[in-house]
Amino acid sequence: MTWTSTMSSGYSSLEEDCEEYFFTARTSFFKKPSGKLADPKDAEKEKDLRTHLSYEEIRHKIDLYNAATRDHFKMTLNPDGLYTGFIMVQLELRRPITVTRGVAGTKEGEAFYLPCGAVNTLHISSSNTVQQVIEALLNKFTVADNPAKFALYKRFCRDDHVCVCKLSEGEHPLFLRLLAGPNLDTLSFVLREQQTGEVLWDAFSIPELHNFLRILDKEEQDQVRVITARYNIYREKLEEAIQATSSHN
Fold it and tell me: Do the Cβ atoms of 152 and 137 come closer than 8 Å?
């Protein structure tokens, strides 16, 4: 099942869970190249930069960022040195997710596919980590799946190649956005399943596994119908050729 309804927009506060943790979800749809994986070597560089940047340096970078952005997604610097702003996260989930309550025509506990290429704009703080961003996205869509199943990647260009690098849980996406500037061609964020090389079936609940079986059964039936129809066409053409040859004889 694919969820095709329009996702809600507007501010959603999570201040009851964390005073510095809030986000906005807005949705658009587009597709970009999946890119190739790059070695994740930027976490330490980010830590060093974040440690050594002064308040004035951050303010200067925010001024440059806000001057370069062409939309209303600007950053705001607080007196304590923290700043808030927006990041866009593209959803590239290949496996179905399970919701905790019915949304957009789905039932509680039902597995369905999020539309590939959907983009959510999150309003976050510079203190928010990759792990918190992942949890915010899952909470927004009332996803019951374990956050450990997902990872946040950054997509960027290097030597005319599109690269994709997995971010560590402790990195700060808004800081990366600030350093890269507002241009999404320079840096964008992507939510994907963990690239472990194999599916960690133990991480799924029994209802999730049953939902996967139902989805696989439906896909199998669809493929059988397609293949059967194809061979029926071949059979009809062969029979027509046999009849044509027999009539000529």
Answer: no
